[in-house]
Amino acid sequence: MRVEEVVKAIKDKFGLEVENPYPRRLRVKIPVDGKSDEERRQVLRDLLQYAKEIEFQHMSFITCVDFIKEGRFELNYGLWSYTIPTMLVVKYDLDRENPKHITVVDIWKPAKIWEQEVHEMFGVEFEGNPRSFEPYVLEDWDSIPPLRKDFDPVQYLKEHPMQGAGYDPLPYANLVEKNLEQPTVQETGGDEGANS
Amino acid sequence: MIGYLAPLRALKFLFIKPHTVRVPDKVWPRWPDFADPREGKSVYRGVHDNDWTKCIGCGNCSRICPAMAIEMKEVPKEVLDEIGAKGVNKRPQIDYGRCTFCALCVDVCPSGSLTMTDNYAWVTKDARDHRYFFPGAEKWKYASGQVRTWHKNPQSDLLRPKPWVKKPPQPAGDTGK
Amino acid sequence: MTRVPIRELVVTYDFPTDLHLGPQHPGIHGNFAYILKVDGEIILEAKIVPGYLHRAFEKLMERRTWINNIALIPRVCVPEPDVNEYAYNAAIERIAGWEIPPRAKYIRTVVLEMARISSYLMYLSSMGGGVGVYPLAQWSVGDRDYILDLFEALTGARVYHIFMIAGGVRRDIPEGWLDKLEETLKYLEGRLKEYDKLIMKNAVVQRRLVGLAPITPEYAMEHGVTGPNLRATGVPYDLRKIDPYAAYDELDFEVVTEKYGDAWSRFMVRRREIEQSIDLLRQLIDKLRKDNTPHIHQPYSGLAFKVPPGEAYVHIESTKGEFGYYVWSDGGFNPYRVFVRGPTTSHAGVLMEDIAVGQQLADFSLIDGSFDICPPDLDK
């Protein structure tokens, strides 16, 4: 099966537009369009099941991006085919205030661990995957999920002072704030590049 | 049966010279000057060195450092006027607890005064010395070593680089250092 | 002092019991822990405990500029740092639409292949430690040092090179380096013959590794296995051939596969890929001698570097599996989001928990080593 045939098959079966921005990369977005959550979840599950039947053999990743200005999380499901060959990224939007979602572990096995990571870093709840509610790399974490854009590590550092450090790290944390301002190239008055 | 006797072939290594480097038997390292047995190669990124007569105190190195290891500190004007330096009376101070030795600071220095040397081992008596390293000041000259290795040149310039000029192909059999 | 009869000093466990194969263990490579449920010597369940190497890279990368991140990136994977540098910079170039000059591609491929050889030698060393044949462990690490010396002469540092930058590489090859590379390759070929005579034909090594934890291609692809582990089951899937990047579409090589999918096949796939890398490096040396294009795409300032908005995913065939970087940019001085896809996440999280069931406890460290579980890219 070729890449063009995949684009056509998904358009015929689900009515979704597939983009092809770079060679061997396909992107498809499941639009909101006034549908309810149940219908969109069913479309997502059907699409992932269909991809498994046409030659996508490998689930690469499940990850999430926090678009705080638009108030949404965007989940990305990455599937890879060795024989076509192409990558297909399925994008799905979730509401940022109430990120509840359903698992796909019964269709693709590697989702077991990727959903655990997304839950810990962003707070998305995957119902049906009990493993995803356990902590992944952070134990006894007591604040909001850390990869969200409104988590400020400098604020966290001020509230939880580090014990046992040889020096106070807070002045260095403030230098990071200075890095976030737009850097300017300073015009210099000295002599030009002394080359070797 | 042969498979169980095969390890006896290893006995020939008793008569072959090993390829490890032998550290000299003197007390090593001695402070403040010590001789290390193996220098870094010609583009090694080791301890920094700054030429205070060429440095203008602009702060580019401090701005690009990814680990926030460089701070610009005020130096009294008399010290700088003695050696004949121009520019702002600030000089970079490096905290080696945070430095990653990436050499981005060397590549954005406009005057090319900051370089890196081939020294990778440094011993002092005070445990906090590594945080206040002032490359180029009199007190710290011993730590930098003598050979400048990674210095800014037109290939690695990141400040105002010019389009790179083609060089002729290298002939085979030309061995350098 | 009372005397206690010896029979009362024996401690008994109620099997099945939990065994913590904790983060400090000479058989586990890296800071990684397992909780095993054992019944005597047989393992009933296995569960991973990640998190000892979590350094918060994804959050840190959002708070530093695009050029600052190249100093942070190699530290994600310790044995093979160049894979990270390549993937991050290739994602930036893809978003910006840059075509990099051929010399930069060849130099990047040389660095990637040398990192492959040094990472495979490290794998041989850890397998030597696991099986118990310590000459293999010491010889591989000693031979890897010649490659690290070459890296030092080219890039300036031995392990964390920080050599690739958006648009190409930071410096061109110094004089006489290509000849030193040829000498080292000839030396390594001679050493591989020594390894074969002493270790691959050793009966004890073969008895321990042949037939250990076999997997079929369907089982492997269902569990998300990639890289040399998948090629050891018999399917010729290599990302350098299927989704070519850098200079691999101009090079001539064949995919290395083995038949049975057990620990011995995984071991031999990696040992044969060292020879493949030596051959690829010889082809690249010839191409580099004839080429004289620039080593970087276009001049830019390191202090004010912006990338236009967009997103891109680049994945690479690393020695551990499929290593990918997904980069989102919103047009500013900092990346918007960087996602690191580590190969060990599916190997350790999905595969190890299923394949360890029913194995002997003494073989567990070998199974873990033969799949090349490397925790830094799982914890990030």
Tell me what you see in this structure.
- The complex is a heterotrimer of chains A (about 200), B (about 180) and C (about 375).
- Chain A has a five-stranded mixed sheet with strand order 1-2-5-4-3. In chain A, strands 6-7 form a two-stranded parallel ribbon.
- Chain A is an alpha/beta fold and about 200 residues long.
- Chain A has five helices and seven strands.
- Chain A has two domains: about 5-140, Beta Polymerase, domain 2 (2-Layer Sandwich), CATH 3.30.460; about 150-180, no CATH class.
- Chain B has helices at about 1-5, 60-65, 75-85, 105, 140-145; strands at about 50, 70-75, 90-95, 115, 150.
- The model of chain B is unreliable at about 25-35 and about 175 (pLDDT under 50).
- Chain B has a domain at about 30-150: Alpha-Beta Plaits.
- The longest helix of chain B has 7 residues, at about 75-85.
- In chain B, the strands form two sheets. Chain B has a three-stranded antiparallel sheet, with no helix packed on it. In chain B, strands 2-3 form a two-stranded antiparallel sheet.
- With about 180 residues, chain B is largely without helices or strands.
- With about 375 residues, chain C is an alpha+beta fold.
- Chain C has a single domain, classed as Cytochrome-c3 Hydrogenase, chain B (Orthogonal Bundle), CATH 1.10.645.10.
- Chain C is about 45% helix and about 10% strand.
- Chain C has 13 helices and eight strands.
- In chain C, the strands form three sheets. A three-stranded antiparallel sheet of chain C has the order 1-2-3. In chain C, strands 6-7-8 form a three-stranded antiparallel sheet. Chain C has a two-stranded antiparallel sheet with strand order 4-5.
- In chain C, a hairpin with a 4-residue loop joins strand 6 and strand 7 (about 320-330).
- The model of chain C has no long low-confidence stretch (mean pLDDT about 90).
- The interface between B and C is large, with 50 and 49 residues.
Give a brief rundown of this model.
The complex is a heterotrimer of chains A (196), B (177) and C (380). With 196 residues, chain A is an alpha/beta fold. Helix content of chain A is 30%, strand content 22%.
